[in-house]
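Letters spell out the chain; backbone shape is given numerically. Both lines appear below:
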Amino acid sequence: MKRTLLSLLLVTSIQCLIAQNKYTLDSTELTSRVVKDSLDIPWEIIWGPDDFIWTTERFGRVSRIDPVSGKQHVLLDISSQVYERSEAGLLGMVLHPEFDKNPHVFIAYTYQSGSNIRERMVKYNYDGSKLTPLDTLIEDIKGNTTHIGCRLFILPDKTMLMSTGDAQDRPLSQNKSSVVGKILRLNLDGSIPSDNPDPRSYVWSYGHRNAQGIWRAPNGKIYSSEHGPTTDDELNILEADRNYGWPTVSGMCDTPPEQAFCNSNNVVEPLVIWTPTIAPSDIIWYDHPAIPEFKDKLLMTVLKDKSLIAFGFNTTGDSVISQKKYLKNELNRLRDICISPDGKIYLATNGSSWSNTRPFTHTIVELSNEAYIANSILGLSSTPSIKIGPNPLREGQPLNFMVQEGVTGDFQLFDLMGRPVLKQKVEGGVNSIDLKTTEGIYLWKVVFDNGTLAEGKLVVN
């Protein structure tokens, strides 16, 4: 899984020969590098358990991309099945959280059914070289050329959230009998979870216009970014069986008709709104010391405003206490984001304008703090001694983590998709950690207070 120190040094040397740009945040200087160009609207990018970047392209292609060489391995081309117009096409993707045992990939796209545009989500199997369809989990969702949603996210309980847009049919967002303009929740076999608000329905929350970002943070909150009309783009906290107001309410409940509707319809107000609109796309939590300005913050890629926004929250995660915009107009429209285990950020760019006037000219760009990388290499010899066990660990059994005396740090556990599962302080001596994890393979990391890092793999069976 992890690249060796020799490979890292070699790659660093090669990259010095490639033209790079520098961007300064508050105090951290980031180096940018184009990992892959000649893409056509990379809509989803995911850091995979194989240390490759998995991506969808809107015209109908799915690939794995080597983040070092940029070599693209095409796994699936369904361009003949995908309906691509305006914002429609091959969009959201997510990998099974236990990918080593269940190499399943879930993909959402629009298609044509007679004269109608529809949306479906299909489960594929990965055999090491290609994707083959296993099952269509949900289909015949009303679509359009815009307002499609299509972001997918798998929760710790192994249910999936899927956003659907209003498909330019606004009243359907408030119609709980329709799956349009909603956040849907389904099991990974396509069935309806028994604990959904209505156990006969996929609908988990409603009143949405076009949510295109979903992420569950370490604080347990599920955040979502959503496009507004000409006003009121939103950052929300998603909750089951709650109404998000559209189309009666846009943004806050701040007019008399909106207030009356909100009071009688269980409406959740957004955490943040933007007027004029900025076109928010995907979101992700950054929990790594490599870029201090972003640590323990939610990052949002922005299309119209061509920027990356970092949000800080209060301790309960239900209020934004800081937001700052970075990289404005530096890297074109930013569609998506993923993060490598060593803290590098990867951004999918989608050109300079909403219309795709220059297809196959889009990129995936890497942002790294080279100073942190150098310090990590130099500090390897001073990493405190640790012992971790048992490994493999039985489900429900506590993990013992022994650290040399006088040392403290943060123990962090991630699933194979890089999503945080647990974070806990450790100190010199024996630390007993109650993981409460299900069977699978996890990645652990300890960031010590002296700036050094230790990491490894944990098997739970």
In short: The first helix runs from residue 5 to 15. The chain is about 5% helix and 45% strand. The radius of gyration is 22 Å.
